[in-house]
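Input/output pair, single chain:
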Amino acid sequence: MTIDYVQLGKRIRSERKKLKITMEELAESANISVAYLGQIERGDRKATLEKIVSLANCLGVTVDYLLSDFIDPENINDKYIDQLRILLHNCSTRDKKMVVNMTKLLLSYTTNK
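Output:
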């Protein structure tokens, strides 16, 4: 399977927008130019593995999440973990602990049926 760089760029753009950060902010965090980020997001240029890792770290997602469209579904990890990571990305430690405790509470009710 080959990587569709247009699809990869769309996923990067989508994650950036979810975090409500500008291209300039992401480019600065990832130590790349805004022009290069724009080319990656449009799929005009192939991002190196190093840049994909850097962008994933800046976006608070995993590389496998960014590349999930190109991974065999039989071997993919649980996507819900990545979704939780995105939701918790900008939360304080206190809020993260609250989410963990609430999740434990909810799971205790569903497993005790």
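The chain has a mean pLDDT of 88. The first helix runs from residue 5 to 18.
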